[in-house]
């Protein structure tokens, strides 16, 4: 992956993490870096799933890939919240 590919993955991960955090009901007591990490993981895993399903490269906007990534971001933020709060770390 190139330098710009890494930068774009982080930017997309930031957006997906924030979207996941907004869609998930309730308050998430996790730091922003963990939200970004959850979004980046969702972006990478979502890309692999979309490629496996054959929907990663379509004409126009890849809506199915985007929906997969958003669902994964919500799940990643929920999982990160559960794991982070289980450790007893509070702010």
Helix-strand layout with pairing:
Blueprint: H1 3-23, H2 32-53, H3 63-86
Helix pairs in contact: 1-2, 1-3, 2-3
What does this entry look like structurally?
It is built from 3 helices and no strands. With 91 residues, it is mainly alpha-helical. Helix 1 crosses helix 2. The radius of gyration is 14 Å and the shape is globular.
Q: Specify the overall morphology.
A: globular
> Whole-Å distance between the termini?
36 Å
Beta-strand segment tally: 0
**Count, helices:** 3
Low-pLDDT runs of 5+ residues are none
Proportion of residues in β-strands: under 5%
> What Rg is obtained from the alpha carbons, in whole angstroms?
14 Å
Q: Could you describe the largest sheet, including whether it forms a barrel?
A: none
**What structural category arises from helix and sheet content?**
mainly alpha
Short characterization:
Helix content is 74%, strand content 0%. The chain has three helices and no strands. α2 crosses α3.
Give me some keywords for this one.
91 residues; mainly alpha; 3 helices; 74% helix
